[in-house]
């Protein structure tokens, strides 16, 4: 119950910050998250509701990055471990219970018409263009869903993820193990 209260408080603060940003003219463009060893930026228009970690029901004969399906607020969502999918690992990394406590499920916006939630390790908050000092276009051989890479003032690299492009990729939609 404490986790739900903390999540509600976080979502209230996030909504307040979004409202404040709208009224002051500052635009927050991304939801910043960590998954594995990487930092990602989800466009706010593509990200949906944020849920506390819910253990998905495993589905046999699926890719290692597909954790299963979960009932999130009455809807059935496929749960993808972003860190494993993004790196192309052949096995999902083991996660401790302490790490799961910070883990969240970020649903894709319902306008994308894919009932999917990405499992991320930690929410960082909102980021706008002003939070970064440099940007680089994706490499020519990068997946179509990878956007620009941004560098923050501390030298940290943030990878933009185009959730709309991701939701349409055949390799993302094909969860069956090869």
From TrEMBL:
**Protein name per the record:** Chemotaxis protein CheW
Q: Which organism is it from?
A: Variovorax robiniae
PROSITE patterns, alphabetized? CHEW
What Pfam families would the database entry show?
A: CheW
Query: CheW-like domain location, by residue?
Result: 27-172
Q: Which lineage ranks, top first, belong to the organism behind this chain?
A: Bacteria, Pseudomonadati, Pseudomonadota, Betaproteobacteria, Burkholderiales
Superkingdom in the source lineage: Bacteria
Q: Which InterPro entries match?
A: CheW-like_dom_sf, CheW-lke_dom
